[in-house]
Amino acid sequence: MWWLFLQDVRYYSEESEVDLRDPIKDYELYRETCQELQRLMAEIQELKSRGIKENASEIDERRVQSCVHFMTLKKLNRLAHIRLKKGRDQTHEAKQKVDAYHLQLQNLLYEVMHLQKEITKCLEFKSKHEEIELVSLEEFYREAPPEISRPAITLAEPHQQTLARLDWELEQRKRLAEKYKECLTSKEKILKEIEVKKEYLSSLQPRLNSIMQASLPVQEYLFMPFDQAHKQYETARHLPPPLYVLFVQASAYGQACDKKLVVAIEGSVEEAKALYKPPEDSQDDESDSDAEEEQTTKRRRPTLGVQLDDKRKEMLKRHPLSVTIDLKCKDENVLHLTFHYLMNLNVMTVKAKVTTAMEMTTAISAGDLLSPDSLLNCLYPGDHGRKTPNPANQFQFDKVGIVTLSDYVTELGHPYVWVQKLGGLHFPKDQPQAWHTPSPVPHRVTPVPCSAKLQAAVVLNPGYSTLPPVFSLCLNWKGERNSSNDDNIRAMESEVNVHYKELWGPKPGYQLLTNQLQRLCMVLDVYLETEPHDPSVEGPKEFPQEKMCLRLVRGPLRLKPFKFNYPQGFFSHR
To answer: Measured between alpha carbons, how far is 430 from 404 in angstroms, rounded to an integer?
Structure first.
C-alpha cells in the first residue's frame, strides 16, 4: 500500500512538476538520454565482443548507467502523457465552450428568424375592412354624426379615422338591414295582392270572352269590329319590320283620315312563326336526313341548271305574310294593293288590282291604263318599278345568274321607291353605273368568261324597223370563228337575219334590235354549252350545259339546235 501511496504522491508531484518544466528542455534531455543510451549499448556490445573477464565490472557499471537512463526516459514519457492529457482536457474544455457559444448563436438566429417572420406577417396582414368598399372621406365627414366621425381626433390619426369609418359603415348596414326587412314585408304583402288579382283576372277572362262573343252582332251593326282588329294586331306581331311599319302607318291613317281605307294581313301565321324557330338539331334526324339525301342522290343527280333555279327561288323568296290595302272610291271602284317583303333582298314590292263597279263591255282606249303592270308606274318621276332600289341586290343576282329583277316583277310585284319609303327602307339614290348597268339580255343566266367573246357588226338601215338590221358575227374562242370557217356561226347569223319576224314583237316593232341581241346571247349559250369536252383537259367542263336541247347536233354539218320553242322552253333544230 505504501508503494501505491508513493506512486500517487509521485504522480501528483510529477503532475505539478509538468507545469514547472519546460517541454523543450525535456525534449533536449530526451534526445541526449537516447544518445547516451545508444553510446552505452555500443560500449557494452564492444566489451562483450572482446570476451575479457575483467570487462564484466565495466559492463555492469554501464548497465547501471543504462538503467538510470531508462528511468529518465520513463519519467519523460510520463511527463509527455501528462502534458498530452492536459492538452486534451484543455481542448475538450475549449470545445465545450465553443459548442455552448454556437448553441447560443443558433438560439439567437432562430429568435431573429422568428421575429422576422412575425414582422413579415404583420406587414402582409390584410384586415377584413380592406375588402369593404367604404364611402369617401368627404361623404363620411359630411354625413356621419360627430359622435362617430370625431374630426378633432380622426383627422390627425389615420388609425382612429379608419375605425370611425368602419363604425359608420356598420351603422349604415344596420339601417339597410332594417330597411331590407321592411321591403321584404312589403314584398310579401304585394305578392299576396298579386295572387288575389291573378285569381280575379283568371276568372275574368272567360267572362270577357263570353261578353265579346255576345257583342259580335253589336260590333257588326255599329261597324266597330274590335275583335277583328285585336286579331289583326296579334297577327301583326309576326310581320317583318318593313311590313309592320306599313301596317301601323296605314291603319293609323285609315282611322284618322279615311274610313274607307281597309288594311288587312294575309298569309300563313304558322309559316311566319316557323321562320324564327331555331332548327332542332338531333343526331337521329341528321342520320335520317343524310340517309334520305343519299338515296335521293342515288336516284337523281340534280343538274347545275336545277341547282341555279333553286338558288334563284330561294333568293326571291317572299315572307309568308303580306299587307293588303283596299282604296275605295266614291263610285264604288276599288284599288287593291298587296305589299310583299322579299326577305333575302330586303326590298318591298306591290301588286295592284282594280275592281270596277260595273263591267266594262265596250272597248275603251283607257283600258290599258288599268293594267296591273302599268297602273302605278311613274307616280314619281323615273320610278318605273322595273329594277331593285337596293344596290346590294345586284351582287346577290350575280351569284345566282339573275341579270335584272324586271323578269320577275309580274310574279313578285313592282319594287317602287315610294313603296320602300312606306316601309321605312331607304337606299342611296345615285348608284354607280359601272355596278348597276342594266343588261339588254334579260334571259341571260350564264356569265361568259373572257376566254369566249362574241363580236357582232350590225348594219342598221334608216328605215328601221320596217327594214331589219343585219348582223355579221365573229367568235373569239380557241381561235377566230366566223361564217366562212364555221357553219354554226352562219346558222347563228341566220337566226337573227332570216328569222327576224319571230323577234319583231308588237307593232311598230321598235323592240326588234333588242330582241335580236337577246336571241344572239341565247344561241351563244347553246353554241358554247353543246361543244364537246376535251378529255385531255382535267377538271369540269368549261361551259356546263344548262339549256334544254332535244339533240346536240344534226346532219353532216353538225349543226347545233338554235331554234327556241316558246313556251316549252327548249331548243331544237330547224
So the answer is: 18
Closest CA to 323 of 345, 348, 347, 344: 348
Q: Which helix (H) or strand (E) holds 314?
A: helix 304-315
The Cα–Cα gap between 374 and 414 comes to: 10
DSSP state of 448: P
Give CA angle at 569 (350, 512), nearest 5°.
75
Query: Alpha helix locations (H) across 437-563?
Result: 487-497, 512-529
CA atoms within 13 A on the CB side of 170: 9
pLDDT in tens, 423-459: 999 888 654 443 333 333 333 333 444 588 999 999 8
How many residues are listed for the chain in this entry? 574
Helices H / strands E in the chain, number of each: 18, 9
For strands 470-476 and 262-267, give the pairing: unpaired
Sequential DSSP letters for 396-443: HHHHHT---GGGGHHHH-B--HHHHHHTT----SS--TTT-PPPS-TT
CB 326 within 8 A of CB 262: yes
pTM reported for the whole predicted model: 0.40
